[in-house]
Structure formats: structure tokens, C-alpha cells
TrEMBL record:
This is SCO family protein. Belongs to the SCO1/2 family. The lineage of its organism: Bacteria, Pseudomonadati, Pseudomonadota, Alphaproteobacteria, Hyphomicrobiales. PANTHER family: ELECTRON TRANSPORT PROTIN SCO1/SENC FAMILY MEMBER (PTHR12151), LINALOOL DEHYDRATASE_ISOMERASE DOMAIN-CONTAINING PROTEIN (PTHR12151:SF25). It comes from Rhizobium hidalgonense. The keyword Phosphoprotein does not apply. Disulfide bonds join C71-C75. GO terms for molecular function: metal ion binding.
Amino acid sequence: MKTFRIAVWVGVLILAGVLGAVQFYPTKSGDVVAESPYGVPFTLVSQSGQPITEQALRGKPTALFFGFTHCPEVCPTTLFELNGWMEKVDPKGDKLQAYFVTVDPERDTPEIMNEYVSNVSKRITGISGAPDKIAEVIKGFRVYAKKVPIDEKDPNGDYTMDHTASVFLLDSAGRFAGTIAYGENPDTAVKKLENLVNKG
């Protein structure tokens, strides 16, 4: 019986290795890059009120951040820092793009996203949409987002959002290429964006 259990576990490990090999392949530089575009197809609304799909994440390396406009610290800090890093790495603004997707579509209309993002950056585009569509994107991009009431005694009152604070890095084909953590050393963050641009 013990031998059978060991054989089963060995089989599971081999299967996991095969599935991992199918999902990823090594590049010439030794880095690991997803073989297919990260996330899921979507149709949302940009801060200008125009439809935007996952095709916007193709053609140029992309920095992708999920947050919300009522965020007290993480989101404004990340947007401000990301804008500065992009200006260093791509001063002309033609090699790198960035998007800020709301996790709070009930409050973050395209108009509010436009006002909020435009006050911080001209290089980052805000994205909103219907709550059900945003929920699909959050799930598809494996982002954590949860509504948290300000007052536990009033669950239907004012609220904040807990959410993933990392910036996702995608190559020009929309494939996952890494992350920049919240609070990342600025020099490290700039280097990651430089590497992303160089890989294309």
C-alpha cells in the first residue's frame, strides 16, 4: 500500500512538471515567460469613455496596475512612482505603456478615473467598466480585491478595498514578464522596466 501511495505521488509530481512545461518556456536569457497572453479577453471602458479590450495590452510592453480612486496611499503612490519611472526609462513615451484598472467600478466611473489619473500622469490610462465585467477581469488576471466596510456595524455603508498592490509587467505580446512590488527599490523598479522594454 505504501509503495502504491509513493507511485501515485510520483505520478502527480511528473504531471505537475509536464503541465508547468506546457505553460512556460525558457527564453534565451534564461528568464521564464508565459507562452500565451496573461489574463483574459475583456471589453471595458477607458477614462476617455471609449471601449477598450485586451488588445490594448499588445504591441508595446505594458505596466498594469489594479486599484481604486478612494485608495488613501498605495494607489496614488504607485501611480506617481510609476509615472516617474516611465519618464526615466522611456522619456519620449513611445516604447512603454501603462494602465490603471479600477477594482471599485461602483464608484470609479470613466469620468472619475479620467480626473484622478490625469492629475497624476498623462502616460497612464485609467480603465473602468460594468461591475460584472471588472469582476471577470480581476479573476482572470488573478488579482485579489475585496470590499471592506469602514464600519463593521454598517456593512452597507462606506467602504474601502483591499487589493493586490503589485504592478504587473507584460511584454509586447501581452505575456506575463514579472512584477514590481509596492515599495520596491526605485532603482530596481527602473531596471525591471528597462529590461521589459529591451525584451519588447
